[in-house]
Structure formats: C-alpha cells, structure tokens
Amino acid sequence: MRIYADNAATTPMSETAVRVMEDALEHLYGNPSSLHSAGQEARARLEEARAQIASCLGAAAPNEIYFTSGGSEADNTALRSAALAGAKKGKKHIISTAFEHHAILHTLDALAKEGFEVELLPVSPDGFVTAAQVEAAIREDTALVSVMYANNEIGTVQPIREIGQVCRSHGVLFHTDAVQAVGHIPVDVQADCVDMLSLSAHKFHGPKGVGVLYVRRGVTLTPFIRGGAQERGKRAGTENVPAILSMAAALREAVDRLPEHMAYVSALRDKLNDGLLRAVPHTAQNGTALRDPAHRLPGTVSLCFEGVEGESLLLRADLAGIEVSSGSACTSGSLEPSHVLLAIGRPAEIAHGSMRLTLSDTNTEAEVDYMLEKIPAIVAGLRDMSPVWEDLMSGKKPHLI
Amino acid sequence: MLYSEKVMDHFQNPRNVGKMEDADGIGEVGNAVCGDIMKMYIKVKDGIITDVKFNTFGCGSAIATSSMATEMIKGKPIEEALQLSNKAVAEALDGLPPVKMHCSVLAEEAVRAAVKDYYDKHGIAYDPAQFCAGDCAHCHDHGEKE
C-alpha cells in the first residue's frame, strides 16, 4: 500500500484538471497576444479562466487577478510592490508574523537589508496571531501588513477577516499568503478586506508552476517582469495557458465541493490525529485543539513525538508506504528545526521529532487505518534505539511532553 | 533519492544496534537540541574491540553512519579504531550528501569518545591531544572534516 499524506506540500492533480490541461496542450496552441483566430481563442479561454478564478475568490472584477508562476512569486511580488509604494510615501514599516512561509520571511529579510523596518508578530502557543496584535503594531509609517491565511505546517487558520478590517480601518495595505487556504476553506477577498492575496494551483489539485496574485482594484502594483503587455503590463511573458485553464478548473471544482470535502477530510483528520495521540505516549499536537474550519485546516495533522528525530521517522514511514513530511532540521537542509514549531514555543529537541500528515479528499478511511497501524510501531522502533528516549525512560531527564 | 542504497540499507537494518550492560567503554556525543545524539558501547579484550553496540537519536544518515562505524571497528585493535575517519565511514556508505557529512563526523567522534572512556576507566595512559576537548559535536561545528 502507498499512501500520500503530504497534501500541504502538493496535491495530485484532479481528473478534471488533467483533462483540461491535456486538451489545452493539444488544441489551444495560440498565443493570447496574437490577433488571429488561434490567438484570440486562447485569449478568450484565458479571460474565462480569469473570471472564474475571480468569482471563486469573491473578487469584484476579473482584472484583479494576475497570473504568476506560483505562490512564491505572488508573495515576493506583493511584498516588493507594497514596500516600493510605501517607501514613495516615506512609509518603511512592515508588519508580518514569525511563522510565515519562507517566501514571505526571506523577502522580508531582503527588504530589511534594503532599509525597511520589519516587525514579526509573535505567535501564540496554539498557533494564532490576533487582530489586536496587528492593531497595536500599526504605526503612521506602516506600509504593509502580511499575515498568512493558514499555516502550512500546523494548519491553524488566522483571523484574517478581523485583521483585514483592522488594516482597512487604519488605511494600511493588507496582504495574505492564502496558499494553504484557497480550495480548502472558504475564502472571500472582499468580505475578508484583503488587498492582496497569493495562491498556488498545485495545492488544490491543479498543476505546478502556476498561481495567482489577487490585487484589489485601486491598489498599486509595480510591474514585476518587464517586456510585454501581458497581465496588464505588470508581468510580461506569454501566459502558461494550459496550466492557467487547468488551475481555474481545479479551483472551480474545489470551491464547488468545499462543504462536502471539508466535512469528509476533517473527519479523517480527527480520526488520524486522535488515534495517533492515543496510540503513542509522549506525543503532542501542534497548534490549536479546535477543529472547526475557522480555526484549523480540515486536512492538517501536526504532531511531535518525543525522543525520535523527524527525518528518520519520515524515511521509516516511507519504507512502510506512507508519505509524510517533517519539520526537523535534517529535512529542512539547515541545522535549525522548523521556525514554525519554534515560533509556537516548542523546544528544539521536541521540534526535531515532528511529523506533518496532510490529508485531502483523495485519502480514504482505509488509509487512515493503515497509518494508525504502522506509525506507532515506527515511533516505537526508533525510540528503542534512541539514547534520548533511554534517558527519558530511566528518569535521567524529564519528559517535556 | 537523497541517500545511497548502502545508507538506506544501514538505516533500515542497522547493525550492532542496542545497549551493552557490561561495556568497557561508553561514548556519547551530540546534542538533542541539534537533532542528533550517538551513544557507542565497546567491549575490549587484549587491546581488541571484541564487541560494539550503538544507540542513535538522529536522521537517516546519523543512524546509518553509526551502524557502519560499528561494523568498521568491530574485531579491530583499538589503535586501528582510533584511526577511523569520518571520510572512511562516508566512503564505506558510498558517500553522503554534503549537508549530512556532519553525521559521519559524529560517528567518528562517538568511537573516539568510547575509546577515551575505556582508557579513563582502565587507567590507561594516553595523549589527551588525540581526543576532542568535549564540545566537538556542538551544533555549529557540523562541518565536514578534511
């Protein structure tokens, strides 16, 4: 049995998304910028996709949708554009959070080196920032607030609407990285008072290498790739028509099936989460214990197993046919464990033993049963050979969880 | 795949894994905060390492390098075990990714720590300079040894 439980990393494409993409690859070869029939047909389909995505996000108009190569590009662009616009008015203060995706944090690092003052709000132990925190941090010279819609590691959903309202009332630009949220929980850019939003198609069963930056009408967007009139002159380059059409189809499908999928996936999540917590002693759940979609993504299970290291957990799970991820240092390619787990207050030695299992509507209850059978044995096997576990069991060191 | 077949083999089926009740020397290196700890036990008779066991908390390559290091010193004279280099361990595993070379350093240090402990416990004189001062497996000292 092979089980894919790493849907926050990427999702398999839906049948619809594959069909639309194949069809476009085969038949829709025209360049949308060409004036002949083949070009105009591609143009028409592209604009249809734009309108469809706008409607799925609750945007006011299709021209608020800019196609990008994915979430990272959208995040980089949103931050850079807002920083530039702010700097022109003498505003060089940017507010974000300590547990953003690296596409945000590393861009902010670069902006800090360029003279911007970046303020990262601390995150509560259960994985939230509040609108009150944002409001307290806003200053006269605040150029931008950027808060992720839902965290990619622990799945906590932030109070985006409240934060959006606070930003709107103070006249501060608000961006949200909604890469993990769109297609999984309801997102409405107008109701949420969002000025800019990033999304990525492959997180909701669409293709890789394509995403969207939503920019509310009236918000200045700096051109980010020059050399053509595509995307209203903001992002030059011939559009990736097949991927964009496929993304729109995947999003339409995800949004249409949202209520039924949220119920289905969160039931699987709860069974997996609670089952693992019951079966494996000295295990802690990362992020809130709340289960409703206003506070937690339907598919995310994030746990820390004391006394074992995450990469070996992940590899042993893979050998058993279970594909998951970990926030251990070894999997991040650095010596530091996940900045998200550290931000919610996990000590480094606990954060090293993390496992993230992210489910989607393609997973089944039989798969959850299989994981519940295998994972406790994998943890026990690694604990058996762990000197850390030995010290915990002998009482030489106290249990932290 | 990130790892060679040999690394995966030693990770999946680690050799000499376990504890030793009557060890002549025990070496523990690493730090849980950094994400890896190796504990190595040796049994010595007439200057020969007759048995060796290990326990490791760490990533796939930490487990594989410990396992390989135990195989490489088992049955060998102590002096030979002290010659074991991290590079030799890595090579025996058909190589490690650059970011994982520190695991092989840790394996080398675990062997040396176990030998030092054996010398200390048995009152055998040695040159302290040949052993690390004690903080060599520090998080920020995880670079490849030349």
Walk me through the structure:
- The complex is a heterodimer of chains A (401) and B (146).
- Chain A is of the alpha/beta class and 401 residues long.
- Chain A folds into two domains: 15-255, Aspartate Aminotransferase, domain 2, CATH 3.40.640; 258-393, Aspartate Aminotransferase, domain 1, CATH 3.90.1150.10.
- Chain A has 14 helices and twelve strands.
- A seven-stranded mixed beta sheet of chain A has the order 2-8-7-6-5-3-4, with helices on both faces. A three-stranded antiparallel beta sheet of chain A has the order 9-10-12.
- In chain A, helix 6 links the parallel strand 5 (142-146) and strand 6 (173-177).
- In chain A, helix 2 runs parallel beside helix 7 (241-256).
- Chain A is globular and about 75 Å long.
- Chain B is α+β, with helices and mostly antiparallel strands.
- Chain B has a single domain (5-129), classed as Sufe protein. Chain: A, CATH 3.90.1010.10.
- Chain B is built from five helices and three strands.
- Chain B has helices spanning 5-12, 60-73, 78-82, 86-92, 101-121, and strands at 25-31, 36-45, 48-57.
- In chain B, strands 1-2-3 form a three-stranded antiparallel beta sheet.
- In chain B, helix 1 (5-12) packs across helix 2 (60-73).
- The longest helix of chain B has 21 residues, at 101-121.
- Chain B is globular.
- Classes of the chains: A alpha/beta (401), B alpha+beta (146).
- The interface between A and B is medium-sized, with 25 and 29 residues.
